Amino acid sequence: MSLLAIDGVALVLLIPLAAAGLLTLVPSYRIGARINIAASFLALLAALSLFATGPSTGQLLLVDELNIVFIALNNFIGFTTAVFSASYIAHEVEAGRLTPRLLRFYHAMFQALLCTMNLALVANNIGLMWVAVELATLTTILLVGIYATEQALEAAWKYFILGSVGIALALFGTILVYVAARPVIGEGLDAMAWTVLLTRAAGFDPNLLNLAFVFLLLGYGTKAGLTPVHAWLPDAHAEGPTPISAVLSGLLLNVALYAILRFKMLIAANQEALAPGTLMITMGLSSLVFAAFMLYRRRDIKRLFAYSSIEHMGIATFAFGLGGPLANFGGLLHMTMHSLTKSAIFFAVGHVAQAKGTQRIAEIRGLTVTHPILGWGLVLGVAAIAGMPPLGLFMSEFLIISTTFAQQPWLAVPLVGGLLIALGALVLRLGEVAFGEPQGQAAPVHASYVPLFAHMALVLVAGVYLPGPMVAWFEHVAGLLG
Amino acid sequence: MAAPNLQLDVAHLLAGGLVLASFMLLYQNRMFALLKVFGLHSLVLAVAVAWQADIQGASHLYITAALAVTLKVVIIPAALYHMVKRLGIHRDIETVVGIGPTMLAGMGLVALAIVLMLRVTETADTLAREDLAFALAVILLGLLMMVTRRNAISQVIAFMSIENGLILAATGARGMPLVVEISVAFSVLVALIVIGIFLFRIRERFDTVDVHALDRFSGERT
Predict the structure, then answer these.
(1) Which of A175, A195, A284, B6 has the fewest other C-beta atoms within 10 Å?
(2) B217 to chain A nearest CA, in Å?
């Protein structure tokens, strides 16, 4: 354990925390937005420095092969979202939807959210991870309700009720894991540390572990937006500020799924416990099929992409449930690509909604004519999210489908069916929004296109050519996941 | 120090008391009575946690007990009391399901919790075992209360009773670290939500704290 590595981990947590404190004191929202970007950039550098220092294990914090890329992804999207957010909020202030005082709160909460998500990822302790996820939930509830319109408060309330029931169930599961571990490991912090739990899991009471996993899957599954506990997700995405929708879909869902993955590894390490895969396959497939059908009935553009997030979380959960190196590889790649693509889509949608002054799909028409750059950016994003070659999500979905055919051919039927149904809905909506008869305001919008196209470029590059070290990393971690 | 058996008996008595208090919450149909019973619920929890702190020799658990008393026996019920009074909503609480079926469902849930937990925790020690069974019962009763109430304040109270059940479970698991941190994190969540209700003044927005009124906006706006 080198000293430098601990510094990198500490910095990933301390930079956003300090920035959150600082931002509460800065009255000007313009300066606040710049500090927000600068702090996110520094956190990204700190996260990237972890690659140089490599894995390290501490008493409470941990960097290993599994979480290192999630940390980097978290801070990268945090940074690009901060850049997008700066131009987004400038428009919101002009439109009078947000006041400078609220923005102070908004920026501080944005950094607090990044800090808690980083903490959830680097925690080497199931209790600490729970606390981090709980605090992340809290900050997002406040951010979702920030517009204080009836709809926003309703969405925040729904999110509070479902989100807190979810984290309550997850805590009960966490306590059960501790109760299972205590007779084997003994009292104290060790009985909650990932690294220790994983090596000793074979001796735990399998019944307790089974029960714990059901609670954990339902609990963290609520946060990951899996059906049947997804109901908060579309409202929270639609009514909050769009940068928050991007962070919710791109990052928070990943953090929750990451937690489920960790516990899945734990259960899989115990020979006598039930196979966690079956439960995850069921939840994943039902999320996929349910969300695919729901896509057809959406009239609100942000809700449309929120349901698409449920769909993709379902695909990733299904892949991890299937297990085996190839499916896990596909699942990890899918999570990464989905994060990049979906946040890029929300960057585009945020500016589209501002340019057109509405989120209703029926009133957004002919974007490629009125706003060519935004319109084509959105087309590219939707093509990626629908799994078109040669973009990144095509690769991951192809991997998952082909593995399913090899391992469980019957499961491929609902999987491919769900994907095609979703594809149909997206093509239908995209046709109206991007290529229909131009409608609504055609006023130019001050947009920052860099985050959007940076994400799309990464997704394109990953779809065409994944660099060797990345493939090696994905393969290694996929092997670890069992 | 009392004899080991007596220690366990008192611990179980207090945990059972919490389940009873949960049942009392379940059938309250007056706002003020609901707040008072919630204060009682938290008080029973605080005593149970303090007892655990004593028999386990875990002094940090006293912090959790003190936190429960100050925040959930005094401050939050008092704050909600003021709010209810100011908003003039101390009339009867509308419930979705009648009291009778709710109580029957509650009994079923308690039986389920006890059968389930006692079966799967055969290897765990007696203290954790029965505490976990009672704690799960409290959590399930809280969930039941959440779905049978439409009123925003009752839902917050239902959530806090779930939280009490979780803290009971966490203290019952002997030597579990981070219990204090977990209870603090929970308290921050609840406190901010209560403040949030205050600040946004749900009544001004919705004319009522009845969550049902919010359903107009669920799903899509056309």
Answers:
(1) B6
(2) 6
